[in-house]
Write a structure and sequence with these properties.
Elements lengths: L3 H14 L4 E2 L2 H4 L16 E3 L4 H14 L3 E4 L18 E4 L6 E5 L4 E5 L4 H10 L2 E2 L12 H7 L6 H4 L6 E7 L5 E4 L12 H5 L8 E8 L1 E2 L3 E9 L2 H14 L4 E8 H10 L13 E9 L6 H14 L5 E4 L3 H12 L1 H8 L2 E2 L2 E3 L5 H15 L3 E8 L4 E8 L5 H5 L2 H14 L15 H7 L2 H14 L13
Parallel strand pairs: 2-4, 3-4
Antiparallel strand pairs: 1-2, 5-6, 6-10, 7-11, 8-9, 8-10, 12-14, 12-15, 13-14, 16-19, 17-19, 18-19
Helix pairs in contact: 1-3, 8-10, 9-12, 13-15
The chain binds flavin-adenine dinucleotide (FAD), D-malate and zinc ion.
Length: 474
């Protein structure tokens, strides 16, 4: 039951949003109060559903005035607890799901304007309907929202060719902490007018403002593709193969994903319809895709030739090409359901790291050795976006091991892996952000100068500390 001031706040929020815009019933708010990985269980004064930018603006002005913490939430698929309120019960969760219109599409400018609550897959579809292509692609694309993608600076499986979400933005509309609306939905590719304010909101995880819409870049529609699933002897061969394919294809590699044997075992065991694409088991695989906007580009023969030469040179051990769209979907299903299969198999400890592509083989060797020696009840599940130097260096609980004992290894494991990442000049958070989970890691690995500047930016944008308190920075 909210106290008196909580009751007044709920009344005020109801006046702004209407009765159907404010949820307080615990049965209805529950899905919004825990994160995807079930790491955090929060409480909230209410979960609210603005329908317009004006709603968001009035809510923020009110909450800023009353010093009520505001937690923006998109599809709630984030990995770091950024969209979950704390345990106080005093914060308000602002779900953007009703702000979900594609406002406009401009095929000749290769751009469209989408509201923050648009599901990523819907944005991809809108681009496709306009004979264009929006390249951001994640396993969660059926649920995550473009506002969440912008706020986490999401990566995924086509960064190698098209960049991260940050690289795909032309302009933003953002509601500031005090309710003012920063309307900068430009469709410009060139704009050198002082500081690039919009870039600060990208990857800010809702700590500097609430994004309500974005003008995003589109690309020529993909009209031909070639997809191969190849086994490689080791990570070094995967890295070498990537360089060769980029060279041989005129840089048309759009995805290049590393997959270990255990991921094939986990997905075939836990995910209906996933099968092992090759007849024999191998230690490592890559899933690679070439794409082109030209329907008649001979990508299949190009990839086939490159893989045949790689086979002769011992860089590839076996390979299969997708011969139909159905084959292609099946190969991608194997890749994209690895996280789900990992979850279904038991407890896991995750690290989302990036280092220079060339240093990946040595890193995997050293980090794996440490894990083998120090986490005997864990099984390595190391996979990810090799083309971006980004690996999900994960461990799953070994069969018959004790869940709590395994999870108790988290702190020393994390320290060892992240310290090694630092030694390699890498990042402890390549694409998943900081949220609440990695605040301590940011404090440990960022320099004093970086932290000072981040805190100064936070103070400038949110002097009363109402925007997603406790996330990114304490
Ligand atoms: P949420 O989880 O709702 O929020 C994430 C953060 O953004 C929170 O801090 C929240 O407060 C803030 N936020 C949300 N909307 C707004 C807004 N409109 N304005 C301001 N702040 C806002 N991530 C990758 O980068 N690459 C992957 O390959 C990838 N694969 C995934 C696969 C699976 C199966 C799953 C479950 C997740 C995966 N993710 C991946 C993680 C996740 O999907 C992304 O981080 C995604 O961008 C989060 O979007 P969301 O809408 O779910 O955001
Ligand atoms: C992926 O690439 O599948 C995700 O970013 C990693 C994960 O879900 O753990
Ligand atoms: Zn990933």
């Amino acid at each position: 039951m909210p106290d008196q001031s909580g009751g007044e706040s709920l009344q005020a929020l109801g006046e702004i949003l209407g009765a159907d815009g404010v949820l307080t019933d615990p049965a209805e708010t529950a899905p919004f109060l825990t994160d995807h990985r079930r790491l955090y269980q929060g409480r909230a004064l209410a979960v609210i559903f603005p329908r317009s930018v004006e709603h968001v603006s009035r809510v923020l002005a009110f909450c800023n005035e009353r010093r009520i913490g505001v937690v923006p939430q998109g599809g709630n698929t984030g990995y770091c607890g950024g969209a979950t309120p704390d345990e106080s019960g005093n914060q308000v969760v602002v779900s953007l799901k009703r702000l979900n219109r594609i406002r406009s599409t401009d095929p000749l400018n290769y751009s469209l304007v989408a509201e923050a609550g648009c599901i990523l897959a819907e944005v991809q579809r809108a681009a496709d309907d306009a004979e264009r292509f929006f390249p951001l692609s994640l396993g969660s694309e059926g649920t995550c929202q473009i506002g969440g993608n912008l706020s986490t600076n999401a990566g995924g499986t086509s960064v190698l060719r098209y960049g991260m979400m940050r690289d795909l933005v032309l302009g933003l509309e953002v509601v500031l902490a005090d309710g003012r609306v920063l309307s900068s939905l430009t469709a410009l590719r060139k704009d050198n007018t002082g500081y690039d304010i919009k870039s600060l909101f990208l990857g800010a995880e809702g700590t500097l403002g609430i994004i309500t819409a974005a003008s995003i870049k589109l690309f020529p529609k993909v009209r031909s593709s070639a997809t191969a699933f190849a086994s490689v002897p080791d990570v070094r061969s995967a890295v070498d193969l990537l360089a060769r394919l980029r060279d041989a294809s005129g840089d048309r590699v759009s995805s290049f994903e590393l997959i270990p044997r255990i991921a094939v075992e986990l997905t075939t065991r836990h995910i209906p319809g996933v099968t092992d694409p090759l007849a024999q088991p191998y230690s490592w695989y890559v899933l690679c895709e070439l794409t082109s906007s030209r329907a008649a580009d001979p990508l299949d023969s190009l990839i086939e030739e490159a893989l045949t030469t790689a086979l002769e040179d011992g860089l590839v051990l076996d390979a299969v090409l997708a011969r139909s769209e159905r084959d292609r979907i099946a190969l991608w299903k194997l890749r994209e359901t690895i996280p789900e299969a990992q979850r279904l198999d038991g407890a896991s400890l995750k690290h989302d790291i990036s280092i220079a592509v060339s240093a990946l083989p040595r890193f995997v060797e050293r980090a794996s050795q440490w894990a083998h020696e120090n986490v005997p009840d864990g099984r390595l599940v190391v996979y990810g976006h090799v083309g971006d130097g980004n690996l999900h260096f994960n461990l799953n609980q070994a069969p018959a091991s004790e869940r709590h004992a395994f999870l108790a290894r988290e702190a020393p494991l994390k320290r060892a892996i992240h310290d090694l990442v630092r030694e390699f000049g890498g990042s402890f958070s390549a694409e998943h952000g900081i949220g609440r989970l990695k605040v301590g890691e940011l404090e440990r690995y960022a320099s004093t100068a970086e932290l000072d500047l981040m805190r100064a930016v936070k103070r400038a944008f949110d002097p009363n500390g109402v925007l997603n308190p406790g996330k990114v920075l304490r």
